[in-house]
C-alpha cells in the first residue's frame, strides 16, 4: 500500500468522536478524505479547509464544509508538510497557503502532521525555504530588513508560471522564499520575521504540532511533541 495512504489511515483513530475537523492540502490529505468517505456514520461532522483542492474533494463526497471564519476553535487539524524535525517543528513551504493553514493549526485543540518517513529530519536542511507572506507595498522594505538581519541570506520573490508577475496569495499578498544554508534558532527566527512590519506570516510551524504520523516501508511511527505547545508561534 502507498505510504501516504497508510499515513492517512493512521490518523483515523484520532478523528473519532470529533465534530469540527480541519484538513490541509496535498496527496496524503486527499487519501484521508477518500478514507473518511468510506467511514461515514451517523455522527454529524463539520469540516474546514484552506485548500481549494481539498474543498473540491470534500464537496464531491457531500461532506458538510463550513468557512474558517465561522468558528474560533476546532477539535483537530490534520495536514502534511515539506519537512518536520525531531521537535515537530514543520515547514509548509510549497502550497503558498500557509497563513490560513497556520490559522487552522492554531485554532485546533490538536494538530497532527501526516506523511511519509522522507519528510522527517533531525534538523532542517537547505532543501526548503521558509516562506513569508508579505504586503505588496512593504516588499522592498522587508527585503532591506532581511538583508540587514541575515547578511548573505538568499531571498526570492515567488513568480507565477501561469502569468507575468509574482504569485498573489488568496489574501492579495506576495510570497518571498528565504533560503538558509544554516538555520537560526527556530522560535527566535519565527518571532524575528513576524516582528518585521509588512510580514503577515511565515511557513515555519514552530511548536504547533502535537503529533506526527510518519510511514516507512514496513511501519508507522507516531511522534509526540516533546515541548509545551506555543499557540502564538
Protein architecture, described:
- The protein is of the alpha/beta class and 233 residues long.
- It has 2 domains: 3-121 and 206-224, Rossmann fold, CATH 3.40.50; 130-202, Alpha-Beta Plaits (2-Layer Sandwich).
- The chain contains 6 helices and 14 strands.
- The chain has helices spanning 3-15, 27-38, 52-60, 98-107, 139-149, 186-194, and strands at residues 20-23, 46-49, 64-65, 74-79, 83-84, 90-91, 108-116, 130-134, 154-157, 174-179, 199-202, 204-205, 211-215, 220-224.
- The strands form 3 sheets. Strands 3-2-1-4-7-13-14 form a 7-stranded mixed beta sheet. Strands 9-10-8-11 form a 4-stranded antiparallel beta sheet, with helices on one face.
- β5 (83-84) and β6 (90-91) form a beta hairpin.
- The longest helix is centred in the N-terminal third of the chain and has 13 residues, at 3-15.
- The relative contact order is 0.17.
Write a concise keyword list for the protein shown above.
Alpha-Beta Plaits; 14 strands; Rossmann fold; 7-stranded mixed sheet; alpha/beta; 233 residues; single chain
Amino acid at each position: 500500500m502507498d505510504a501516504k495512504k497508510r499515513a492517512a489511515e493512521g490518523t483515523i483513530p484520532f478523528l473519532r468522536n470529533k465534530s469540527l475537523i480541519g484538513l490541509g492540502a496535498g496527496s496524503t490529505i486527499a487519501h484521508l478524505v477518500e478514507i473518511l468517505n468510506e467511514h461515514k456514520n451517523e455522527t454529524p461532522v463539520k469540516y474546514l479547509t484552506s485548500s481549494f483542492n481539498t474543498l473540491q474533494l470534500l464537496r464531491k463526497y457531500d461532506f458538510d464544509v463550513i468557512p474558517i471564519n465561522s468558528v474560533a476553535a476546532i477539535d483537530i487539524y490534520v495536514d502534511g508538510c515539506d519537512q518536520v524535525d525531531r521537535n515537530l517543528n514543520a515547514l509548509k513551504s510549497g502550497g503558498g497557503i500557509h497563513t490560513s493553514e497556520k490559522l487552522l493549526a492554531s485554532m485546533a485543540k490538536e494538530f497532527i502532521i501526516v506523511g511519509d518517513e522522507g519528510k522527517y529530519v533531525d534538523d532542517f536542511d537547505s532543501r526548503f525555504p521558509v516562506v513569508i507572506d508579505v504586503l505588496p507595498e512593504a516588499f522592498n522594505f522587508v527585503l532591506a530588513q532581511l538583508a540587514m538581519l541575515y547578511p548573505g541570506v538568499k531571498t526570492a520573490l515567488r513568480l507565477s508560471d501561469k502569468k507575468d508577475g509574482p504569485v498573489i496569495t488568496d489574501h492579495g499578498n506576495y510570497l518571498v522564499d528565504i533560503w538558509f544554508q544554516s538555520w537560526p534558532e527556530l522560535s527566535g527566527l519565527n518571532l524575528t520575521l513576524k516582528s518585521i512590519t509588512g510580514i503577515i506570516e511565515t511557513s515555519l510551524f514552530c511548536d504547533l504540532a502535537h503529533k506526527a504520523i510518519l510511514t516507512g516501508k514496513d511501519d508507522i511511527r507516531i511522534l509526540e511533541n516533546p515541548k509545551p505547545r506555543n499557540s502564538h508561534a
